[in-house]
Amino acid sequence: MSKGITSRSEDYSQWYNDLVIKADLAENSAVRGCMVIKPYGYAIWERMQAILDKRFKETGHSNAYFPLFIPKSFFSKEASHVEGFAKECAVVTHYRLKDDGTGNIIVDEDAKLEEELIVRPTSETIIWNTYRGWIESYRDLPILVNQWANVVRWEMRTRLFLRTAEFLWQEGHTAHATSEEAIAETEQMINVYAEFAENTLAVPVIRGRKTESERFAGALDTYTIEALMQDGKALQAGTSHFLGQNFAKAFDVKFTSKEGKQEHVWATSWGVSTRLMGALIMAHSDDQGLVLPPKLAPIQVVIVPIFKSEEEKANIDAFVNSLNAELKAQDVSIKYDDRDTQRPGFKFAEWELKGVPLRVAIGARDMQNGTVELARRDTQTKETVAQEGLGSHIVALLDEIQDNIFQKALNFRDSHITEVNSYEEFKDVLENKGGFVSCHWDGTPETEKRVKEETKATTRCIPLDFEEEDGVCIFTGKPSKKRVLFAKSY
RNA sequence: CGGGGUGUAGCGUAGCCCGGUAUCGCGCCACAUUUGGGAUGUGGAGGUCGUAGGUUCGAAUCCUGCCACCCCGACCA
After folding, report:
1. Quick one: DSSP state of residue A468?
2. Taken in order A201, A206, A208, A214, is the CA torsion positive or negative?
3. A9-69+124-284 adopts what CATH topology?
4. Strand partners for A273
5. Rounded to two decimals, what is the model's pTM?
6. Per-residue pLDDT tens digits for A45-73
7. Is the domain A417-487 a CATH 3.30.110.30 member?
8. Do A230 and A408 touch, CB atoms closer than 8 A?
9. Cystine design at A88: which of A29, A43, A154, A250 (Cβ 3.0–4.6 Å)?
10. Around A438, how many Cα atoms within 13 Å sit in the side-chain half-sphere?
11. Nucleic strand B contacts from chain A, 23-82, CB < 7 Å
12. How distant is C1' of B33 from CA of A343, in Å?
């Protein structure tokens, strides 16, 4: 059994890998750096998809799908973009295999592609190439499209959920007539992400803007939500980019304005990925396994019967059926674990490992007393409550659990944002406490680079809610107008 | 891609230095007894040691290549 993060913070990754495997969420596949997401893990991703997708639709977006393969030449069109991705792409060069005569399957050299295809690391290029044909007039704008897809980035170093070679995500790509509108879209979507992270995942996040050196390749401005994991490292959980007219210019996407002028379109892109599952796991899990917030949990309530005879079982079944009906009517998802192949204690431990928020145990004794045993995953506490009114009690309790999980993570996060005014303090906090460090910085990439080399910490963001204040850069002593957050990150 | 480490049954491991076809635990199967926190007993099945070569009478063990994973670095959602 894994020991948990508090006792093994230095060995966090191993613990994390143990946990996700033991909680049956995912495993490494036979393909380098890729993962198999197992059914229970995928169910969690599906919940994320469903909730996010609903928000995208509510904010006026539609889903579409673009090709997996992107002609290599598309990458030559936006210089800074290719610079950011060229190093880590999978490239398709041939389209046929053949038998070499001895039973070995080899690549048929005669089937070489004239132009290589890139497996998308992100879809800006192929989408903007397509948008050129969709946009002629201001009447065609805005285009508000999202894509659910997989992408591939040939990372040198991979990590389950956090940085796999292939990952699942959604990428929104919008086109607008004005800069203002595009910026508003960028901000709207980072807020959608932040609300999702906090309200659904119960992971508190800091909304902010990336510094120039941390920006997305090809973006003019990158908004981010930054979460804090229990080991004191920060995790970028979602980004929303204002792309200006860079892609419109690169792919020649123009429209005729109301005034009859030809203008380049303004763009945004935004995305979250299966990395969110990593954030979820690392933000809430404890030594007993996963802790899922009720709003996200594929199974919110598990019911475990405890019985010796068939009569007792039938008795419990009848009660569970009525409880089931009551809870389903209130959109509570329930699992009645009446397997007779496992004992109750085993089931308790297993569902705890999987993070099910609430467990109801009912035995013959309960049936006599008109009670059940309720166990909360988040606090690990148990109480015996009356069967009467159980449905509404559970609904209320699920809300309470959701709040509690968030509050716990928020307290941890807030107690790990440390304001410092000297480089000595800065290093001390990073080394001994972890978390975010708020300090003045002269705004130059050179200083960021130096700090990273010396401390491994990078700027995570300039929080949107930070006020301007006069100060001096703690590294160079140059004047600064605003604080920024540094942290070690994944 | 550079440095370090690992790869033995579904999982976790011993054996490797000092070559002689593999240890233990969990899990799995059968039966019995059990069932309010990961049951117990008895019996049983399952591996040829990541992979391809080499050395040797003989390789899990020694040597080389390759692959994968983990850690550190560079890179990144």
Report:
1. P
2. negative
3. BirA Bifunctional Protein; domain 2 (3.30.930)
4. A169
5. 0.94
6. 999 999 999 999 999 999 999 999 999 89
7. yes
8. no
9. A154
10. 18
11. 28, 32-34
12. 15
